[in-house]
Amino acid sequence: MSAPTEDFEAEPITLADEPAANETADTGQTGSVSETTGTDPTGLTADAATAGPTDEGADGSPTVLVVGGGLAGITTALILSERGWRVTLAEARPRLGGRATSYQRGELTVDNGQHVFLRCCTAYLGLLERLGAGPSSGMSVLQDKLDIPLRAPDGTTARLRRTRLPAPLHLAGSLLGYGLLPLRDRAKLGRAALALRFTDPADPAVDAKGFGGFMRKHGQSDRSLDRLWSVISTATLNIDPDSASLALAAKVFRTGLLEDSGGADLGYAAVPLGAIHDVRARAVLAEQGVDVRDSAKVLSLAADRTVRLRTRDGELTLRPDAVVLAVPHDVAAELLPAEVPRPFAELGHSPILNVHVRYDRPVLDGPFLAGVDSPAQWIFDRTGPSGLPGAGHYVAVTVSAADRFIEQPVAELRSLFENELTRLLPKAAGARVEEFFVTREKQATFRQASGSAALRPGPVTAVPGLYLAGAWTATGWPDTMESAVRSGINAASVAQEQWVTAHGHRTGARA
């Protein structure tokens, strides 16, 4: 009997209050609401005919509406609530976490994408600790020392791992013995690494250049780019090396690999992402008194910060002291009042394809493997976190910069990736595929191409009290979980600072 083959598209986060198409099929949630006018116990409600300048909380504390329940919105809400603001968090989907969450598919709990972090991602690690999900909790894992196994379809292998020597010497032994490259290519790796270490990611002239051309200029062959540098750059920037911003690539390699010996130690969730970014986040937000409204659609946002929301309980009109749009850049461009310039609407998107395969037996040794010379770029063992019963094995394959695969029919993808996994995982050759499905994230990240830095805005807009957050904003980091959390910190800090400047006190901040 042939294994089931299915295709689920992970739609972009939109203004709609319905879950994405694949999530509707898997969870049965409709998110339908009525069109009645409701009342809001948070102190944010404004009647359009009678509202004053703002709707200050009953205790005199400022009020804020955070639109978007991804990592940026969660971070913003936590920080402002801790500083005494009365916070309402509105999320269009029925769950929190944005693009780093999970959904149920039969007996599997499926992450909508495989998200890893590095030790240098201090803001995201701080959020994990705040949610009670740091590495010491058992809900996430952080390597003691960087160790990435790599394999090519011809059976050639290598390991990218560090020693305890100071950076950049910590990688010297690994690169000298990197078996996926001939000796003549390995001998030139240090030259390019040194050039990257002294490349300023904050320089606009650097952002105007492409990563691939820069690396070739510093002695790197196409083989070195494909078999080493792009293993990291494509996974973090979600774009091919020749199109990628040199500034963002330099940020990745400098901060992660070249300045701190432990910077690139790799971390990942040991449980479904939704257990952290939805379940744990809701619990901590509730403890902070944040009013979380999921399945809440923003209908309009005016220049005076009047917001019309449609929630499960009906329609609300709010006029808080501040609004933070913590949503994808295309959604922000659609929501913003006409007075606000939106050059960031030109950032574009890059897709990610996720391939999910359930085998009848174990096929992957270790928690992950990086594929080289293969479309199966990163392979993760998600058997335990998915809740798969029995002796089966569930692997998830991440394909970044997936432009050439994203529209391909699932039958063709199955033929391609089953074959690739057999070539990369010797144990897969004798295993039976019991289930195969794909998820498509057509708008997974903004397009992190050369010249994109000029399009990324800071948190402040032309409308007083209206702020932006999201991994796409000007954080200095690529579009990652780390960037999302940093953007939330930035937005909350500016909102607090401007409130203090205007009102001369620090709200009812907790000690």
Task: Write up what this structure looks like.
The protein has 511 residues and is an alpha/beta fold. 29% of the residues lie in helices and 21% in strands. The chain has helices at 21-27, 71-82, 122-130, 172-176, 183-186, 189-197, 204-207, 211-217, 222-237, 246-258, 273-287, 329-335, 383-386, 410-424, 481-503, and strands at 5-10, 63-67, 86-90, 102-105, 108-111, 116-118, 140-142, 147-151, 157-161, 266-269, 291-293, 297-301, 307-311, 314-318, 322-326, 350-359, 368-371, 378-381, 393-399, 433-445, 466-469. Strands 1-20-16-19-18-17-8-9 form an eight-stranded mixed beta sheet. Strand 2, helix 2 (71-82) and strand 3 form a beta-alpha-beta unit. Helix 2 (71-82) runs parallel beside helix 11 (273-287). Mean pLDDT is 89; it is low at 1-5 and 8-54.
Instruction: List segments where confidence is low: pLDDT < 50 over at least 5 consecutive residues.
Output: 1-5, 8-54
Helicity level: 25-40%
Instruction: Trace the largest sheet across and list its strands.
Output: 1-20-16-19-18-17-8-9
- The whole-number mean of residue pLDDT values reads 89
Largest sheet: 8 strands, mixed
Number of E-state strands: 21
What spatial form do the alpha-carbon principal axes imply? globular
Structural class: alpha/beta
Total count of helical runs of at least 4 residues:
15
Rounded radius of gyration (Å): 23 Å
Distance N to C terminus = 63 Å
